[in-house]
Each structure stands twice: as structure tokens, then as C-alpha cells.
Amino acid sequence: MHTLLAEFARLQDRDLEESALPAVAEAIALLASRALINRSLECLSPLHEHLETLAKFAGDANLQITSALLGNLGVYLGRLAEYESAKMYLERCLEIDKSVYDQDDPRMAIDSNNLGTVLLNWVNYRKPKSTSRELCRSMRESLAQMIQRSQEMSIILEWSLKTWEICGKPGRASREL
């Protein structure tokens, strides 16, 4: 839905006795949750913009579903590696739920886990990728050096054995020459 149309619908909805916003927001939140559970990011992609718009409208209307919309949006963006935006939405989700639920409520644990996962992934994402590449390169170089040394040692050993066969024990060859 285009943002202008969404705003028009919201303004029209204000004049109604019973708003359609809570039902629409809950339906979109449910669709988003199912897509995230099934890891169907391509199904959630077209809802991305609507999640943002609905979260704003639901927040303006002080609807509790706002936290679910923000949480879904945060998890989605985290899976897309858009960690800064994901963090912002998940922090807002946690803030809303803190004002509504007890600290022991499972929703608080879920919110905290989602935020922690995004932060952990963000830290891992920002680590230099070259470290593992450098390690692999160093290991390859060391292995190549070991192979070359073993080939050199093999040649020296082979030469020593041939010398032994031709000349006999060490020391004896020098006496005969």
C-alpha cells in the first residue's frame, strides 16, 4: 500500500466508531511472525514497508500490537544483516513491552533474545574477514614449505642411500678414494 493511501485510510478510519487498524495490524503481525518462523524472508519482503507504516500508526494509537510489529521488523532486518535498524526496532519493542509486562514474562525473554542475537551477529559481522583468509594463506604457505622440505629430505635421503650402496659404510669410501 502506498504511504499516501495508507495515510488517507488512517484519516478516514479516525471518523469510524470502530477502527480497522487493530485488526489490520494484528493480521500483518501474524503474517510477519509466520514468515519469520518459516524463515521465508522473500514472503516478508513485500510487507517490510507496511510493517513500518503500521507500527507507526499502531504506536500513535497506543496499541499493544505495536511491539509485535516492531519486533517482527527488527528480526527481519537482522536476518537481512541491517543490524543498526534492527537494533533500533528491537530496542523500541523491548521498551514498549517493559512498560506493559513483568520482567518474568516470556515476551521479555523473547525480546531480549532477539536483541541479543542481532547484537551478537552485528559484532561477528564487523570482525575483519581477512583474519580467516590470512590464517588459511599462512597454513597453505607452511604446508607448501613442509612439502618442499620433505621433498628435499627425500632427495638427500635417496642420495645418501645410493652413496651408501656404492661406497659402503661411511668412512670406508674416503679410504678407498
Helix and strand pattern: HHHHHHHHH
Q: How many domains make up the coordinates?
A: 2
CATH class of the largest domain: Mainly Alpha
Distance linking N and C termini: 99 Å
Q: What do we call the CATH topology of the largest domain?
A: Serine Threonine Protein Phosphatase 5, Tetratricopeptide repeat
CATH-level-2 architecture of the largest domain: Alpha Horseshoe
Poorly predicted tracts of residues:
none
Structural class: mainly alpha
CATH superfamily of the largest domain: Tetratricopeptide repeat domain
Tell me, briefly, the overall form.
rod-shaped
- Helical stretch tally: 9
- How many β-strand stretches? 0
Strand content: under 5%
- Largest sheet features: none
Oligomer: single chain
Helicity range of the residues? Answer: over 70%
Radius of gyration: 33 Å
Mean pLDDT: 79
Q: What is the compact description of this entry?
A:
This protein is 81% helix and 0% strand. With 177 residues, it is mainly α. The radius of gyration is 33 Å and the shape is rod-shaped.
What this model shows, in words?
By secondary structure, this protein is mainly alpha-helical. The chain has 2 domains: 125 residues, Serine Threonine Protein Phosphatase 5, Tetratricopeptide repeat (Alpha Horseshoe), CATH 1.25.40.10; 45 residues. The protein is 81% helix and 0% strand. Helix 5 packs antiparallel against helix 6. The longest helix is centred in the last third of the chain and has 38 residues. It is rod-shaped.
